[in-house]
């Protein structure tokens, strides 16, 4: 009887009371064989950033909406709490409240930066191993993440152009707060889309208000540009260039530059893809740090099992120059099988 009463009560609710809430998510996992030079190969069942979320809106009239989202990370490989991962904590991913209208969109909370939400078109790979994701949009970037204490504005599109402004306040507060980590982040993103052409640019600057420790970067900025074109016959090409400049509290300056190119080709349900990444020699106080770059190759193919489920395989090599190896960072080879489902 109680079940029938509950069902009757739910059926009596106004449709509008439930229609603005959406449950969504992505489950991404696979099997990887990873070998660092000088070590034995390791087999892993890996998670690639699975998530579940709720989002919705309320019509406030005159074209204005209140918008909200609560997104939580999941781990298919279920790490214990000692890993430091925030996955499984409610709101660990994009979680915000905001307003949307003809003026654009404003969000306040834990919000993806522009590189994470709108870029990385050069990096179509899903993996846990470094060798299976382009370093330019993964291990070597301070972006492609979320600013946990931020406000973000996204403009409407104007003739294919749009822009984003984001300000992250006291970002270290969520990293095990300590006054030395009082970091502010200022970010600008620019985009253009027209037919098969897509171009994206991001500029971000970090400033530690109380200063960083000696030997660590006190303030720095990061830039990345990506441009791609999808041809009518299925070929897609994307190129990217990134540069990071910074200085420590002793005014020592450093510069890191890298580039990448990705090609994809759709053939029915199959999408073969290839990426090449290149890290140039770093500069310290204007002088080249010889043999401090890297070369990266990834090849693979995706197969669309349905509109929402994709399987894939990939193989990657990440070869560092000798100065990086001598600093204790080994080259890596990896093979992976991926399975992704969106709901």
UniProtKB/TrEMBL annotation:
Pfam families: Porin_4
Signal sequence bounds: 1-19
Biological process according to GO: monoatomic ion transmembrane transport
Keywords for this protein: Cell outer membrane, Ion transport, Membrane, Porin, Signal, Transmembrane, Transmembrane beta strand, Transport
Subunit structure: Homotrimer.
Organism: Crenobacter luteus
Major localization listed first in the record, in broad terms: membrane
Porin domain segment(s): 8-322
The name this protein goes by in its record: Porin domain-containing protein
Subcellular location: Cell outer membrane
Highest rank taxon of the organism: Bacteria
UniProt topology in membrane: Multi-pass membrane protein
GO cellular component, one term: cell outer membrane
Gene Ontology MF, one: porin activity
InterPro entries: Gram-neg_bact_OMP (IPR050298), Gram_neg_porin_domain (IPR033900), Porin_dom_sf (IPR023614), Porin_Gram-ve (IPR001702), Porin_Neis (IPR002299)
